[in-house]
Design a protein that fits this description.
The complex is a heterodimer of chains A (319) and B (275). With 319 residues, chain A is mostly helical. Chain A is built from twelve helices and no strands. Helix content of chain A is 76%, strand content 0%. The chains are: A mainly alpha (319), B mainly alpha (275).
């Protein structure tokens, strides 16, 4: 690797860190937009003045917002996410295991979804405008209109209730054997896969089709190469950059899917944790988890950028 | 002008289904056999029968009636949120293109920032402190979604803003209001209208997701997403009541998609691909 690549990569990372800081301001500001008093909103109208004063003290509401922000940011940077108001537990400790659970689930969904989407995309391009292509595209279009819980509950209805192959509720615990754990996450991982598969496949198909219309592909076809080797040897290497981009964008989309899917399957991950504490109006937890989700989302986007720079030499020399 | 036989079959199906949903929503109190909160049975989740076409729900309320009232709530909120996101996004996007300068830069960076967080996550963060009522819900959905409309309308308006007729209007001394609403808006309509369908679908799905998570419409009222939440416990016992509202959301989204696709194709062929 030459130094211009390193410089570009360093620039992207620096930009990402800047963006992350701005996002932390936004998330903090998002929990301050209530015109009244947060303590009042949390405790309701019937709160006594003492409990209100206590909660204000606990939340540090007696200080101006920007001081609270820097206090919070300082804590986050040193790994101290504060304590949950509803349970009094340390947020960082509760998050650790849940983050691992969520990453485990998302990892297996991605492992299945990425190759499947690329293969289906390739097949659709190979038989483009034929019935296979139309069927795949039609199903993909339909499934982008499905809400996540529709896919999830249909899976539960058939595979957990009618056939009883997998559990309907994904209980996982520490020290669970790998095989059992995989069986527990089979249905949520399948639901997540289906949620991202359609998008990923459609965008892969579009990216490869775009390359297929270039002159060198026509040359390869005129040389008499078979359709699959044209795709494999000539089209695919040039389509890698856009395809990586597509894959990363959709992995970012997994983040939204994971929130709903975890609630459907009562899976002890970050999404479930976030939704629970939004309902309880537990602001410190919501801020911390929201920031982590945003950080993962932004990192995936930066990785997509960097992968595109590495895979496509033309991007290394911006005009 | 519009020959019904020339509408493609997919678009026709989409139009008919969408019309059915809208009719059900508008005339809900006259169509529904029972009231929205009326308990008609002592046992929850009665199976489908001639008396209760879709069976009953978790509290023994008539599911068909709930579905029809649910259509009303779902469509009402989704339409208002889409209207808000469109007017806000389009007006700000056009203004950014016309005024340019720091107004454009500031607004565009703010939109970039908002779009760098997944919409659902941002909505959850904000909803954790806001009171849960319909107005908040519509405002949050509309404002967060207007970022997408802003990007599109700004991009379209930047192109139109350099046209000769806009130049002419500026030279004859028209104000910014005239430029935005009388020059740019009519010429930006066709790309915006096809986007309208997609934004509406997104609003329906987003609202359903929020309600499913328990953060959208609050009981006893329920949109379709909320009805999935109410009936989801039955699934483990093999009762598919929760699948019906979920399927209705999917059906609505697909039919609007089909119509939007058709409109997009029609308008692009009319404008010679400029769309």
């Amino acid at each position: 690797m030459s130094s211009p690549v390193l410089k570009l990569v360093a620039q992207r990372i620096a930009l990402g860190i800047l963006l992350l800081l701005a996002v932390s301001v936004l998330i903090f500001a998002g929990t301050q937009i209530l015109p009244g008093d947060v303590a009042q909103a949390i405790l309701g109208q019937s709160a006594t003045p003492e409990s209100l004063a206590n909660l204000r003290e606990q939340l540090g509401l007696n200080q101006p917002a920007y001081i609270r922000y820097f206090h919070w940011l300082g804590g986050v940077l040193t790994g101290d996410l504060g304590t949950a108001m509803s349970s009094g537990q340390d947020i960082a400790t509760s998050i650790k295991e849940r983050l691992w659970n969520t990453l485990f689930l998302a990892f297996w969904a991605a492992i299945v979804a990425i190759p499947l989407a690329i293969i289906l995309g390739l097949i659709a391009v190979r038989y483009r405008n034929g019935w296979v292509d139309k069927l795949i595209s039609g199903l993909a279009l339909a499934s982008t209109s499905f809400p996540e819980f529709f896919i999830g509950y249909v899976l539960v209805y058939f595979f957990a209730v009618q056939y009883q192959w997998f559990p309907a509720i994904s209980t996982v615990y520490d020290g669970m054997p790998f095989g059992e754990r995989m069986q527990a996450i089979a249905l949520p991982a399948a639901a997540l896969t289906l949620v991202v598969l359609a998008h990923m496949m459609r965008m892969t198909r579009a990216a490869i089709l775009n390359v297929m219309q270039s002159a060198y592909v026509e040359t390869a076809e005129l040389k008499g190469l078979s359709a699959f080797s044209v795709i494999r040897k000539h089209a695919f290497p040039n389509a890698i950059a856009p395809v990586i981009n597509v894959v990363m964008l959709n992995l970012a989309y997994l983040i939204v899917g994971v929130v709903v899917v975890e609630v459907i399957f009562v899976y002890p991950g970050m999404g479930q944790y976030l939704v629970d504490h939004v309902t309880k109006r537990d602001v410190p937890v919501v801020q911390a988890v929201g920031l982590i989700f945003a950080a993962v989302y932004i990192s995936l986007n930066i990785i997509a950028d960097i992968a595109a720079i590495v895979a496509n030499p033309r991007l290394r020399h911006p005009k | 002008m519009l020959d019904i036989r020339r509408i493609p079959i997919a678009a026709l199906i989409g139009l008919v289904l969408t019309a059915l949903f809208v009719l059900a929503a508008v005339f809900a109190p006259w169509i529904a056999p029972h009231g929205n909160a009326e308990i008609v049975s002592d046992t929850p989740w009665e199976p489908m029968s001639a008396l209760h076409w879709l069976g009953t729900d978790n509290l023994g309320r008539d599911l068909l009636s709930r579905m029809i009232y649910g259509a009303r709530i779902t469509l009402f909120i989704a339409v208002l949120a889409t209207a808000l996101s469109f007017s806000l996004g389009a007006i700000l996007g056009f203004s950014a293109a016309v005024f340019g300068g720091w107004f454009d830069t500031g607004l565009s960076r703010l939109v970039d920032l908002l779009m760098s967080i997944p919409t659902l996550i941002m909505a959850l963060v904000v909803l954790s402190v806001l009171p849960s009522n319909l107005v908040t819900l519509i405002l949050v959905m509309g404002v967060l979604d207007s970022t997408r409309v802003y990007r599109l309308s700004r991009a379209v308006a930047v192109d139109i803003n350099v046209m000769d007729y806009v130049e002419a209007a500026k030279l004859r001394g028209e104000g910014s209001g005239w430029i935005i609403f009388r020059e740019i808006l009519p010429n930006a309509l066709s790309p915006l209208i096809s986007e309208l369908g997609l934004r509406f679908i997104y609003a329906v799905l987003f609202l359903s997701t929020l309600s499913f998570l328990g953060l959208g419409v609050q009981p006893p009222d329920a949109d379709w997403g909320g009805m999935v939440k109410e009936n989801k416990d039955g699934i483990v016992f093999g009762i598919g009541a929760a699948l019906i509202p979920a399927a209705a959301i999917a059906a609505l989204a697909i039919s609007v998609n089909l119509v939007a696709d058709w409109i997009l194709n029609r308008t692009t062929s009319l404008k010679g691909g400029r769309g």
